[in-house]
Specification:
The complex is a heterodimer of chains A (374) and B (302). Chain A is 24% helix and 35% strand. Chain A is of the alpha+beta class and 374 residues long. Chain A has two domains: 4-93 and 169-249, P-loop containing nucleotide triphosphate hydrolases (Rossmann fold, 3-Layer(aba) Sandwich), CATH 3.40.50; 253-373, RNA polymerase II/Efflux pump adaptor protein, barrel-sandwich hybrid domain (OB fold (Dihydrolipoamide Acetyltransferase, E2P), Beta Barrel), CATH 2.40.50.100. In chain A, helix 3 crosses helix 4 and helix 3 runs parallel beside helix 5. Chain A is elongated, with a radius of gyration of 25 Å. Chain A starts with a helix and ends with a strand. The model of chain A is unreliable at 1-14 (pLDDT under 50). By secondary structure, chain B is mostly helical. Chain B has a domain at 82-263: MetI-like (MetI-like fold), CATH 1.10.3720. Helix content of chain B is 70%, strand content 3%. Chain B is built from twelve helices and four strands; from the N terminus they run H-E-E-H-E-E-H-H-H-H-H-H-H-H-H-H. In chain B, strands 1-2 form a two-stranded antiparallel ribbon. In chain B, strands 3-4 form a two-stranded antiparallel sheet. In chain B, helix 3 (79-111) runs parallel beside helix 7 (170-195). Classes of the chains: A alpha+beta (374), B mainly alpha (302). At the A-B interface, strand 6 and helix 3 of A face helix 8 and helix 9 of B.
């Protein structure tokens, strides 16, 4: 591939993985507003990396700094170990898929895809076959002579994608490229994007506010909030063991309970939420007796009904139920707290919808709860 | 069941009444004057101005053919007026090009400023145009004449040994036209650059285009409608202009506007001839516009 040459020369990670982009203590200020606080991040070569966060969290700013549309206020960014912040956008071998695609409206799909190659000074004879190959990759050959406004949203999306891939960038930056599509198309495109990344071997840096999208496609995710990178990790890590409340709240739904550490031994600890609501969980190192903690409980990890000896259980009263198809969401009143959100899957066993006011017992396994220091 | 509506729109008196003012304006200020002009161009001239209501092709004949002093020689092509016409076209074209060269960067500059300040820049462009065109042209004449401030200044510093001799030349007329119509170029281009989505420029830069390529291949094609509008708005009034050529060009640099103006001035004029010259001018402009719109339409379809 394109990168084979560089692979050899550049600094490698400990586990022999090449770093495509490295942010070192990057700070970005717009006037008195600090958009990025001290970002440190290594994106590996050949990785599908996602910057995930609510709008205005600075994820797009990070992307635009790599592309060259914003400069860094402090710190530095490296591309395969090399400094490149001094280069203008047109001298950086990274390409961007823009949120609204930004396909040139006066050019055909073919001309759009050929543009980058032409600007890179490719010979006409080399451009033609490459563009056709790219259009075939996303099944746009029949639409080559159309203008962007004669394409559907999904087709525009794919055209923008191959336009950015055609010049064989070292890194592809994708700025919320799926947000303008409707749900079905978005889901189909997820698969296609992931496939494209694997086929081309290009490092993808994907920006989104859609956690489902992030979880589905990414090799690794960085969760951002208010200009700070909160956590970096694989999808599962981020979901199962969020580092803090912000991450827990942003990724999926979660019940956050205020609790006190009641007693602890080497293996487990008991956390008291209310007088008759005590949960057994892992013992987080450094905690002492009577310390205030927060307990994170995912709604789908709470079981309604039968309890066995392995898990804790408490009694609750159903306040409200919401039937959502694949599962049912209950608001269940428990001692001490207002209400717990519980998701009950409508799966293999047929379940009756529990009416409001029913008394149920809820059980939690030790592994499904996560303790955070307050 | 859904009610069935009649295909034909019912006569709506309100609609008709609301459209009436527009029709009256178009009729009174466009159709009637042009019709009158067309009519007069086919009439016989009266010697002290005005017309005799007798059908005649004399006006067009006079424009195109020379039949000698007494009108009985075999007709040869009359070059005098055709030359004036061609000169007008050349002058208007050059003025348009000048306006474009200066107007495009100006408009681009304004459109890329902070939105808060754009109104101010536009305001600056329009300030000189609060003064009457005639007065501005006279002032320009004063500025560029042989013993005017520009020449005096250059002479006194020894930068010139003799005056530039700008006045009464084609260049002076150029300058006058350029000065008169520059905002008509700046404003439409400004409007289309302002509407231009600069994400396209970013996308172009992202795809390795340098600034010049981005301007030429991405920005320019997308603001062509504004440029075309600006060119039309400068070219057409320049073609028929008479104040600038009269005041700055003198007799040698006669343009079509002055020729027409002269036919209706005092009692030395020739109304049918002026009307015929106007009709020829009008026809040419219409043909040019027609070609342009057809070109545009073709571009849309492609």
């Amino acid at each position: 591939m394109v990168l084979s040459g560089i692979r050899e020369q550049l600094g490698k990670l400990d586990n022999n993985q090449l770093v495509a982009i490295e942010f070192q203590k990057v700070v970005k200020k717009f006037g008195s507003f600090t958009a990025i606080h001290n970002a440190n991040l290594k994106i590996h070569d050949n990785e599908f990396f996602t910057l995930l966060g609510p709008s205005g969290c600075g994820k797009t700013t990070l992307l635009r700094m790599v592309a060259g549309f914003e400069n860094v206020t402090e710190g530095n960014i490296f591309l395969f170990g090399k400094e490149f912040m001094h280069l203008p956008p047109n001298k950086r071998s990274v390409n961007t898929v823009f949120q609204q695609y930004a396909l040139f409206p006066h050019m055909t799909v073919f001309e759009n895809v050929a543009f980058g190659l032409k600007m890179r000074g490719w010979a006409k004879d080399d451009i033609q076959p490459t563009v056709w190959k790219m259009l075939d990759l996303v099944r746009l050959r029949p639409f080559a002579e159309r203008k962007p406004n004669q394409l559907s949203g999904g087709q525009q999306q794919r055209a923008a994608l191959v336009r950015a891939i055609a010049p064989q960038p070292k890194v592809l930056l994708l700025d919320e490229p799926l947000s303008a599509l409707d749900l079905k198309l978005r889901q189909a495109m997820r698969l296609e994007l992931k496939q494209l990344q694997q086929e081309t071997g290009i490092t993808f840096v994907f920006v989104t506010h859609d956690q489902e999208e992030a979880l589905a496609m990414s090799d690794r995710i960085a969760v951002m909030s208010e200009g700070v990178i909160q956590q970096i990790g694989k999808a599962q890590e981020i979901y199962e063991s969020p580092k803090n409340e912000i991450v827990a709240n942003f990724i999926g739904e979660t019940n956050i309970l205020q609790a006190t550490l009641l007693e602890l031994n080497d293996e487990e600890a008991k956390y008291q939420i209310a007088e008759d609501f005590i949960i057994t969980g892992d013992c987080v190192s450094g905690l002492v007796k009577n310390q205030e903690v927060k307990i994170l409980l995912r709604p789908e990890k709470i079981r309604i009904g039968t309890s066995d000896n392995q898990v804790d259980s408490i009694q609750g009263t159903i306040q409200q139920s919401m039937y959502l198809g694949t599962d049912t969401e209950y608001q269940i009143r428990v001692p001490g707290e207002k209400a717990l959100k519980v998701r009950d899957q409508n799966g293999f066993e047929r379940r009756e919808l529990l009416p409001a006011g029913s008394e149920v017992s809820l059980s939690f396994s030790k592994d499904s709860i996560r303790i955070l220091r307050s | 069941m859904e009610p069935v509506y009649h295909q034909k729109r019912a006569f709506d008196p309100l609609r008709t009444w609301l459209l009436l003012p527009s029709w009256v304006v178009i009729g009174v200020f466009l159709l009637i004057p042009v019709g009158l002009m067309l009519l007069i161009s086919f009439m016989t001239k009266e010697f002290r101005g005005g017309v005799i209501w007798e059908l005649s092709l004399a006006a067009y004949d006079q424009f195109l053919f020379d039949r000698g002093l007494f009108g009985d020689d075999p007709p040869t092509i009359q070059w005098t007026y055709i030359v004036i016409f061609l000169r007008s076209i050349v002058q208007a074209t050059i003025a348009t090009i000048f306006c474009l060269i200066i107007g495009f960067p100006t408009a681009y500059f304004i459109a890329t400023r902070d939105p808060k300040n754009r109104t101010f820049w536009i305001f600056l462009v329009t300030v000189p145009y609060w003064v009457n065109l005639l007065i501005r042209t006279v002032s320009l004449k004063f500025l560029i004449r042989d013993n005017g401030p520009i020449n005096e200044f250059l002479l006194s510093f020894g930068l010139l040994s003799e005056p530039l001799g700008l006045i009464n030349t084609n260049i002076a007329v150029q300058l006058g036209l350029f000065y008169s119509y520059l905002p008509f170029m700046v404003l439409p281009i400004y409007a289309s650059v302002e509407r231009f989505n600069f994400t396209y420029s970013e996308a172009a830069a992202d795809l390795y285009a340098d600034k010049w390529s981005t301007l030429r291949r991405i920005v320019f094609p997308n603001v062509v409608p504004g440029i075309a509008a600006g060119c039309i708005l400068v070219f057409i009034p320049s073609l028929g202009a008479f104040i600038a050529p009269d005041l700055l060009g003198g007799a040698k640099n006669f343009m079509i506007g002055s020729l027409i103006e002269e036919q209706f001035k005092g009692n030395a004029g020739n109304w049918p001839f002026g009307a015929a010259a106007s009709m020829i001018l009008l026809t040419m402009v219409l043909i040019a516009l027609l070609l342009y719109t057809r070109q545009q339409a073709k571009g849309e379809v492609r």
